[in-house]
């Protein structure tokens, strides 16, 4: 069931979303050569504690992993697509890209967002990968309008990514969000005609999150049962925003 939010609920989600925005902005500035992904985790924990927020990811149980996630961030470097785990031994170096994904709950409502940051001078392919992935998210956001359908969002990502020579990760998708981190509907980054294609209604909130590989689309799971990587070892980028459907068009809850 897709949960429709009232204006007051959207305002609460906006507060959660802006905290996530502020955290990611600080971490994006902090993510430089010589910094570890654990340094980012420590900083994020403090910011959440200072704001009185509950981390969305820490303690989240995934049956396939058989345990609860131990961190407030997912930090996925280079070929890691999603769900990479902060580690004091994972030192960022020139040419790396790192996806920083996090979420919080404030007053019972969730915010969730992700950025991918380049470290120092990137290859031309890596720069294009980040640009195209970011652009695909913006194109998808523009489709979050009353009367459109879910496939309009999915197709906007897929079309832009494919025409630029990159590939869509199919195993992981976006989602609805509200009083739960993951709500209906699922939001693939491609048109999957096996899925429902609901019409967008005022009050729906979608976490749209393109995950794009520079090479082939296939993913594999590492032995830690959390970290998903590009099977061919190519770089992978990930951006995410929570977007509400309103009478006035898309309202991005996770940015200023």
| CATH superfamily annotation | Creatinase/methionine aminopeptidase superfamily
In whole angstroms, how far apart are the ends?
29 Å
**CA-based gyration radius:** 17 Å
Uncertain stretches of 5 or more adjacent residues: none
Structural class: alpha+beta
What kind of sheet is the major sheet? 5 strands, antiparallel
Order of helices and strands: HHEEEEEEEHHEEEEEEEEEE
The number of distinct helices, counting runs of at least 4 residues, comes to 4
User: How many domains, as an integer?
Assistant: 1
Helix fraction, binned, reads 25-40%
Average pLDDT: 98
Indicate the CATH topology: Creatine Amidinohydrolase
Which CATH top level class fits?
Alpha Beta
What is the CATH architecture assignment?
A: Alpha-Beta Complex
């Amino acid at each position: 069931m897709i949960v429709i939010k009232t204006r007051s609920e959207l305002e609460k989600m906006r507060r959660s979303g802006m905290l996530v925005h502020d955290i990611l902005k600080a971490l994006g500035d902090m993510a430089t050569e010589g910094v570890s992904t654990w340094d980012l985790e420590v900083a994020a924990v403090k910011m959440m504690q200072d704001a009185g927020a509950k981390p969305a990811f820490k303690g989240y149980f995934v049956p396939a992993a058989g345990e609860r996630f131990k961190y407030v961030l997912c930090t996925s470097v280079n070929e890691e697509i999603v769900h990479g785990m902060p580690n004091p031994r994972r030192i960022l170096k020139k040419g790396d890209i790192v996806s920083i994904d996090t979420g919080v709950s404030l007053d019972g409502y969730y915010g969730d967002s992700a950025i991918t940051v380049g470290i120092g001078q990137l290859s031309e392919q890596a720069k294009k990968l980040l640009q195209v992935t970011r652009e695909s998210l913006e194109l998808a956001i523009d489709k979050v309008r009353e009367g459109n359908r879910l496939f309009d969002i999915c197709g906007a990502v897929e079309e832009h990514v494919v025409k630029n020579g990159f590939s869509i990760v199919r195993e992981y998708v976006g989602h609805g969000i509200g009083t739960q981190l993951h709500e209906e509907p699922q939001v693939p980054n491609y048109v999957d005609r096996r899925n429902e294609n609901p019409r967008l209604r005022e009050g729906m909130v979608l976490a749209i999150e393109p995950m794009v590989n520079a090479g082939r689309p296939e993913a594999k799971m590492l032995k830690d049962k959390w970290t998903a990587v590009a099977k061919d070892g190519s770089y992978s980028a990930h951006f995410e925003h929570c977007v509400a459907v309103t009478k006035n068009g898309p309202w991005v809850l996770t940015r200023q």
